[in-house]
Amino acid sequence: MSDTTSSGPMLAADGTPLKTSLARALRRQKIRALALIAPLLIFVVVTFIIPIATMLFRSVENQIVSGTLPEATYELQEWDANSTEAPEEEVFQALFFDLFRAAEAKEHTKLGTRLNYEMTGTSSLFRTSGRNLDDIGEEWQDPIEDIAPALKDGETWYAMLSGTGGEALLESRRDLWNGMVPDEFNGDVGLTLSADMVEMLPLTAAAYADWAIFEALEEERDVSKRDPWEAVYAALGLDLRNPETVAAVNAYTGPHAEDLQLVAANLDQMPDLMFRDAFAGLDEDWLDPEVWKTIKIYSPDYTSGYFLNSVDMEKGTDGAQMRPENQQIYIKLFIRTLWMSLVITGSCILLGYPVAWILANLPLRTANVLMILVLLPFWTSLLVRTSAWKVLLQQQGVINEILVWLGFVDDANRLILMNNATGTVIAMTHILLPFMILPLYSVMKTIPPSYLRAAKSLGATNWTAFWRVYFPQSVPGIGAGSILVFILAIGYYITPEIVGGTDGVFISNRIAYHISSSLNWGLAAALGTILLAVVLLLYWLYDRIVGIDNVKLGG
After folding, report:
1. CA 174/CA 188 separation, integer angstroms
2. By CB distance 3.0 to 4.6 Å, which of 27, 115, 134, 269 could disulfide with 122?
3. Which residues of 247-269 are buried (b: 16+ CB within 10 A; e: fewer)?
4. What sign results for the dihedral spanned by CA atoms 24, 26, 29, 33?
């Protein structure tokens, strides 16, 4: 049909071309439809899409190592991770300034906790070393202040290092702070570094910039009147170990040049301490190459380590490798979770099918009364129901007491129904049984009783009529209930935690542990991601084998 006439385009009542008017009407309809679903869409994005995306990101995110020790990890790139010796002095020197900065911001303990997931003992190593870094800096501070008393005063340092032209260094050090504590160190520092000092004393200027940024933006103090960190004195001592720097200092004519030249003239009073030895004095573990291997392996911003740990593997210098046999637990837990979930699903089918059949074939009034009993557990706390099973199943519990009283079990050989897989299956079958009965009942109510009568009238026995006529029509309800029960079962952790013991816990219990106790959120996210992938895979297989279109909830 054409939208034009012999005299021109067809017009709507308001005089606009009909095609334009229709396009506007369709656009308004789409906007209204979008407005109606927008609240639901936003809810799904906020409560489902974003949490899953965050979980996926956490399972590979590893920026804490490179963010906390940026210069040390850079220097560590040249070290052979298969070496039997700790790295050279340059790495320990970079570690001192990185760790000093992290210790002031209280971030070194977080790094220690992260590395402790991979190598036990690193948490205490970083914690104790961070408390004693001042002692290393004082090895330089004390003689420098004795040689040039003016350098005891923070105003001297400010006058000596401030100027113009050193903005690039200040911003690069700000980036290091923000790499460790994102977006917390933006603002006016109240300092512009002197380009001459940055060129002549690069380590000193960098250490002073680190201190000034933290002092001004975190402590909110005036850097022109505050004394710098011990690390600044150590940096000055290291700069003056370079003969070219000493020559430049002697030719320098800027503010407090005489104080710098006085220090340069008395280098024999400066310590010859090496950072490698200093860290070994703090803790001998710093000379353990395994510590440095762990730092190097987990220094990239993104890692597959969490996923490898989730399948009982670990990152090695030559790639992925299996963990020692006594540390392999997660594959066993995944297999146990899937197997026990299948057992629980099967138990719910065996127990729920007869109940649903009775409810579907009783008079409506009686069925409604019994349905209340099926729904009653939903009105009781999950924790209360699980705790009740703990009372029933324990060796001195109600079930064992009845069995002993009836003489079925000897008092010395009471059944062990708690803290094992048996207790988990029993308790979770009871808890998840309504989720099987309800889909079955809704499907069975749609099956006309006349079908069974017709089959019997044609000579079928009760069993044949049920198996050949009734049961095939109830299979969609079994499918719906099975999917519901199975997916709920693999995600449960409260019930297995209370009644499961060592042999009855699920992988979800480890996920909950890492989220709430060990705070290893990366591993918890990786375990959760694998569990999600397994569920989606099983769902896909179910759809391929059975067909999701065959699943019904009634109607």
Report:
1. 11
2. 115
3. ebbeebeebbeebbbbbbeeeee
4. negative
Measured distance CA(141)–CA(148) in Å, rounded: 10
Query: If residue 32 lies in a helix (H) or strand (E), which one and from where to where?
Result: helix 18-44
* DSSP 3-state of 252: coil
Cβ(481)–Cβ(436) under 8 Å? yes
Which of 194, 132, 147, 142 lies closest to 168 in space, CA to CA? 194
97: Cα within 13 Å, side-chain hemisphere: 28
**Locate tokens 């074939």: which residue?**
361
| Count of Cβ atoms closer than 10 Å to residue 526 Cβ | 27
Cα distance from N-terminal residue to C-terminal residue, the chain: 42
Nearest to 520 by CA among 101, 106, 120: 120
Instruction: Judge contact between 76 and 299, C-beta under 8 A.
Output: yes
Q: How far apart are CA 417 and CA 386, in angstroms?
A: 14
Question: At 300, phi and psi to the nearest 5?
Answer: -65, 155
- Both tokens of residue 211? 């201190």
Asked if residues 347 and 472 have their Cβ atoms less than 8 Å apart, the reply is: no
Q: Over the stretch 147-158, which tens digit does the pLDDT of each residue have?
A: 999 999 999 999
Residue with tokens 């002092």: 215
Task: State the pTM of this model.
Answer: 0.80
| Beta strands 8-9; 313-316: pairing state | unpaired
Per-residue pLDDT of 324-367, as tens digits, reads: 888 889 999 999 999 999 999 999 999 999 999 999 988 888 88
Q: What angle do CA 55, 56, 62 make, to 5 degrees?
A: 95
| Tokens (6 digits) for 530 | 């694998």
How far apart are alpha carbons 167 and 385 in whole angstroms?
65
Q: Three-state secondary structure along 260-303?
A: HHHHHCCHHHCCCCCHHHHHHHHCHHHHCHHHHHHHHHCCCCEC
Q: How far apart are CA 9 and CA 20, in angstroms?
A: 11
Where does 6-137 show beta strands of DSSP type E? 8-9
Give the CA distances from residue 352 to residues 367, 434, 446, in Å, rounded to whole numbers and listed in that order: 15, 8, 17
Residues in the chain: 555
Q: Within 10 A of 390 (CB to CB), how many other CB atoms are there?
A: 16
Token pair listed for 95? 């570690």
